Amino acid sequence: MLLEFKTKNYKSFVDEACFSMITAPKQKGLDYSIMKEKVKGKEIKGLSSSVIYGPNAAGKTNIIGAMDVLRAIVLRGNIRNAEEKSSPNPASVALELIPNNSATESHPVYFSVEFYEEDEKNKFKIQYELEIDLGMFLDEDYARNIVFESLTVNDELIFRRTQDLEIGDMKVIKSYLSDVTEQNTESITEIAKNSLSRDELFLANGFKLIISQKFAKLVLDWFTNKFMVIYRADSMQLIKRFADPKKKAIYVEKTTDEAAKLFGINSNAVGYVVSEDEPDAKLYSVFRNSKNKKNAAIASEIFESYGTIRFINMFPLVIKAIQTGGTLIVDEFDASIHPMALMSIINVFHNDDVNIHHAQLIFNTHNPIFLNSNLFRRDEIKFVERDDDSHQSVLYALSDFGTTGDKGVRRHEDYMSKYFISQYGAIKDIDFTPIFEEILEREV
């Protein structure tokens, strides 16, 4: 479960932005699927959902993009550009796109992610921090450098890397250490220090290879399988990256097919086709021929609506999140999908009897229907606003306003109407009329 994500000097987020999934103090009501776990005697309370609002170009996608970039860097284990160029998020591939494009001098980019994870015997609150020097915007030839990297488990330092390397007291992960590591701590530490490379993560390299492959696997598995960040991803990438269908002529996943029929499809069934010639799965609609009683498959993009296709390709990710307790983060999750279908998915994440593994759903939107005090808590509703002069973005939650004073936000008030009169900010008054008036004047 994601607890907190921070970034600084990432695109429009020049000052530190903190995206928190920890319950805010003094928030009452709607206590659905609030994860309550004790780690070393301290209680953790995590939210099951969050929705992000803001005008176009405010930075809503940037906060999701920052999560996706950190995920990509951790999984490839370095801050070099990726060899794979097909990512829908260019900044995760070409890191020279990350620095703020209006900055006049270079500043390191900072990421921090804190999450809760457990195995059969242990419960962990894990924080991973990374600060990287990427130079200026579009400087692809800059000699990149990892300025800072640290791993903290249950508030105990495991390692801190600057120009040197500090290994902490690893008692908290003792059961994940090999006998060799435990018996030769000093020599292992020296070897680890010598393994540092300016552009390679210690977590995914030296720590994994020298200190604890088992604990590194636990952390990296969370990034791989439970931190599901979908940044402007098309359906083929979603299937390839997370659903992993087996290579069959037609792969019909029963649960997804049933959901598609409830959503509304024009065929008898839907399924995925993976050919030997093409690495990506493709969605097909399956029809029953009334004459010869045989099935025929037609590419869904020819027969089904865009909204239907998008829903079908997204639904396996919802299933995976619920089954594993994963965090599903989607840019414009509601695009082309009917609000009633979206409400049903949100209610699944809010259902204690179904969401037993404390899965999370995070998405940005322009649809005001979710500004509802009966659907989302105040600490689950986030806003992103961008300053017109500095072009810098800020992130804040509805719960940050408090409950008293002129700008106080009270339980059960009409969030939607207050938002549209700019009570919470993160909205822009747009009037295209002068443009058309000018066009008409030129035609006279």
TrEMBL record:
InterPro entries from the entry? ATPase_AAA_core, P-loop_NTPase
Q: Which residues cross the membrane?
A: none
A Pfam cross-reference name: AAA_21
MF (Gene Ontology): ATP binding; ATP hydrolysis activity
Q: What SUPFAM superfamilies does the record tag this protein with?
A: P-loop containing nucleoside triphosphate hydrolases
Q: Which residues form the ATPase AAA-type core domain?
A: 51-371
Name listed for the protein in its UniProt record: ATPase AAA-type core domain-containing protein
Source organism (scientific name) = Faecalimonas umbilicata
